[in-house]
Please model this.
Amino acid sequence: MLQENRKNPELQKEFVITEIMYMSKTPMNKIEWIQKLREEENLPSEGYEQLLRSPWSGEEEEFLYTNAREVRIKNYGHSIYMRGLIEFTNYCRNDCYYCGIRKSNCHITRYRLTKEEILACCEQGYRIGYRTFVLQGGEDGYFTDERICDIVGEIRHRYPDCAITLSIGERAKESYQAFFDAGANRYLLRQETSNSFHYGKLHPHTMSMEHRQQCLRDLKEIGFQTGCGIMVGSPEQKTEYIVEDLMFMKELNPHMIGIGPFIPHQDTCFASEPAGTLEDTLHLLGILRLMFPRVLLPATTALGSIHPRGREMGVLAGANIVMPNISPLEVREKYRLYDGKIGIGEEAVRSYQNLCRRMEAIGYEVQMGRGDYPRNSDEK
Ligand code: SAM
Model:
């Protein structure tokens, strides 16, 4: 009988209307939104808002993480990719209010690694087994396009089998193109927030959200595996702003997403602001995995810094990357973006062994391959 009715267009219309009325009377709960997100990889904003708001029951959290893990395992198995992080300069021309290496922090000792020192990090990293080098730094005028291209070109020449990731902030499209042509493959640039009011609360007026977003579009256009991201719980962040971030990410369709909790730094304007929470960060990781099944999603150092098992929990919530520090020990303390950053005194070999052990203990296996984003043939 029901089958018969469904064949009748008029009755079918009525059926759909009744269903909508029913749905509007009984708001969907978190479990239903998670199911829908897994099926459709996107939600209307009210769905995201509900998922981003506390409280979560233990059962709801488990449902989110089980789904996120299943999706991650379907795409990447139990592999966790390792990236060797080289923090090569803490000079920065920017003055982001949250950041420990901001221009006006006069309490830190500034440093920059020479080309030879950067290459020595790569050499040691390569010997350990790393096949991705991430060069991160403040926006340091010393590192002109020419110097960056020279360093990237030399790493590309010496290690043709490795991926080179840059994370050096906003530059002109021509500069990004030159880095790409010199051999860089990936670029990380968090948008930080996709709400312009919020952006203005975190940055001086000389910086612009539109420009940062344009940089991300340029990077993708050029062909970089492109990473965006935000800090969870940054000062004045609201649930609606994170929803805007998710919408921006859906439009950008990034290959990597770096999210971690905001953690205050004693010498910044936000010294006495509360840190983002472990729970909020894990929820967002699970949501992102369902939104972007193939995305490269790190369990970040900041997550490991707010909880001793933060990175393990990040992996169990859907992350598939860890980025141990392979910078020289002498400079680690100077690249303190926030208080309590982990890995400051740990030798590169030690942190590698330590992370392998931690990942094995939760049933995952560290992979030292390049771990590129698995692009579809029609995908930028
Ligand atoms: N200059 C490059 C850029 O702008 O992308 C890379 C370096 S920047 C320090 C790297 C990231 O550190 C930023 O995108 C930001 O999200 C994060 N960060 C800075 N201060 C932080 C804090 N107090 N807590 C957590 N993350 C922070």
Observations:
- Residues 1-6 have pLDDT under 50 and may be disordered.
